[in-house]
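Please fill in the sequence for the structure shown.

STRUCTURE ENCODING:
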């Protein structure tokens, strides 16, 4: 979009026609609908952003299936992270944002051609990083907070990254390499060659190998210091049992509940009932720690979100991190995009673009 004079930005702040991809009801990818709707003027603390790219996360898949507890009731527009250009402001004090390239945490409503977003969830980036910008907020903040803020991962410690070929997995690789940690990853065999090109030597095919026994073999029976577990269910206990003394486990998902494209209670219930209940006395006796992480529920430490986001932007600029974008789907092809991720085909991040 061509940059408008500031006065036109301010005059244009009535309802705007936009395109969105919404969840119409819970179910398979075909419940997603591409449609035109209207966007209200931004509130006083908000910016209106023309969205160039939107990130797709596994949480969006779970929400569509009815398995994400904090998602709105359908119909709603998913999408937690965006990049684009500021085209409107809710208050004159925000005029310095006009025309700036940004990435942001959208808290739903990201699958759209434009949205309103709280100014404290927006971060300026160089326009050359607009595609990468939509691949950073959720994945890299999640990986950073788990590995550094919660687990204090150190040089030469072992870290086991489940789903290492996905968006959070790639982010975790790059941060672990920055810290000098030793990496073990689980991924389907078809992704191993590409992961080896990234310098990952110790890979486990989760479909044919037992990650607990393989992790213990790799660490000479001592166990892993840090484990990032988006699996949940019965696998969470196996992750815990793979920890070393002073090991730290972070649970940040329940992908075992979504082995297909629709909700199946016959598969979900055994996994839910098989999830371990961690006993504080047992944790003390074994010198282990368990964390939980949910970026969307981080409400009282926005100072950390701001500080860490700026650090990640600096790392993007100096090449420390470089998001791997697998595929960019047009927003109108939302059903195809969700099916692609549900089929575990992606290596790295999948994005949507309203301009394609």
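FILLED IN BY: designer on duty
SEQUENCE:
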């Amino acid at each position: 979009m061509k940059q408008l004079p500031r006065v036109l930005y301010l005059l244009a702040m009535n309802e705007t026609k936009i395109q969105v991809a919404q969840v119409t009801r819970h179910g398979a990818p075909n419940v997603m609908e591409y449609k035109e709707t209207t966007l209200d003027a931004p509130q006083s603390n908000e910016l209106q952003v023309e969205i160039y790219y939107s990130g797709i996360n596994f949480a969006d898949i779970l929400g569509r299936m009815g398995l994400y507890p904090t998602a709105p009731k359908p119909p709603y527009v998913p999408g937690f992270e965006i990049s684009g250009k500021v085209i409107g402001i809710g208050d004159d004090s925000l005029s310095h944002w006009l025309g700036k390239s940004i990435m942001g945490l959208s808290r739903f409503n990201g699958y759209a051609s434009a949205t309103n977003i709280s100014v404290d969830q927006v971060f300026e980036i160089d326009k050359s990083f607009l595609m990468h910008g939509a691949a950073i907020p959720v994945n890299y903040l999640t990986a950073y907070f788990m590995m550094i803020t919660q687990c204090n991962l150190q040089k030469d410690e072992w870290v086991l990254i489940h789903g290492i070929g996905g968006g959070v997995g790639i982010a975790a690789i790059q941060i672990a390499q920055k810290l000098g940690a030793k990496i073990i990853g689980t991924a389907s065999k078809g992704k191993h060659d590409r992961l080896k090109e990234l310098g990952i030597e110790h890979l486990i095919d989760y479909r044919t190998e037992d990650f607990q026994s393989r992790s213990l073999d790799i660490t000479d029976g001592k166990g892993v210091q840090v484990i990032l577990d988006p699996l949940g269910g019965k696998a969470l206990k196996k992750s815990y049992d793979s920890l070393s003394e002073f090991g730290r486990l972070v649970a940040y998902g329940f992908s075992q509940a979504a082995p297909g494209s629709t909700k199946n209670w016959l598969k979900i219930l055994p996994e839910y009932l098989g999830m371990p209940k961690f006993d504080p006395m047992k944790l003390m006796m074994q010198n282990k720690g368990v964390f939980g992480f949910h970026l969307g529920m981080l409400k009282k430490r926005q100072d950390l979100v701001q500080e860490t986001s700026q650090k990640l932007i600096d790392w993007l600029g100096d090449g420390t991190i470089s998001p791997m974008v697998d595929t960019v789907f047009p927003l109108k092809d939302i059903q195809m995009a969700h099916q692609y991720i549900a089929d575990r085909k992606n290596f790295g991040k999948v994005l949507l673009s309203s301009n394609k």
